[in-house]
Design goal:
- The protein has seven helices and no strands.
- The protein has 163 residues and is mostly helical.
- The N and C termini lie far apart (74 Å).
């Protein structure tokens, strides 16, 4: 397929490279605090990119299902989404109300950073729990050598022994 279809596709649509040139990225999310923010971030991406004016205008978005109840067999409502209201009408209205709020720039940066570095999105406690469950360090660590520390017994300014 790669040798036949990809050149055909690239020529037909004036593209180059592989069809799947970007690696798929997924992340652990602290549902309680970040899930609905991630919904908003994802569903507002086409708006931020200037592709559409409203999230419901983007044909690949789950917004129409989450905000208006449009049937979509690909979507399984999360338990936190279901808690937005006692019935479907309340839930849909509450979900639309979430989009009346401005998505904080710091939150957008935190979500982007988490996705780029593979760091779980959540509190430090959540990240520690993930690491404990997996038995390894996850996500981003500081690059480069660790900072030098002064040897015991030396003063930082004079570098003389304090004995």
């Amino acid at each position: 397929m790669g040798r036949c279809y990809v050149p055909y596709f690239n020529q037909k649509y004036s593209k180059s490279g592989t069809l799947c040139s970007v690696r798929f990225k997924a992340n652990s999310v602290d549902s309680e605090h970040y899930l609905l923010s991630c919904y908003r971030y994802i569903e507002l991406n086409p708006v931020r990119a200037g592709m559409v004016e409203k999230p419901e205008e983007y044909c690949w978005s789950s917004y129409r299902s989450n905000a208006y109840g449009e049937k979509d067999d690909l979507i399984t409502p999360h338990k936190l989404y279901l808690k937005l209201g006692e019935n479907n009408k309340q839930r849909l209205s509450a979900y639309r109300d979430l989009f009346k709020l401005v998505l904080d720039e710091n939150l957008i940066k935190e979500i982007c950073s988490s996705l780029q570095t593979g760091t779980p999105l959540g509190s430090q406690k959540f990240k520690d729990e993930i690491e404990e469950l997996l038995g390894l360090k996850v996500g981003y660590t500081r690059q480069g050598r660790p900072k030098k520390t002064e040897p015991l017994g030396f003063d930082e300014k004079t570098q003389l022994k304090l004995f």
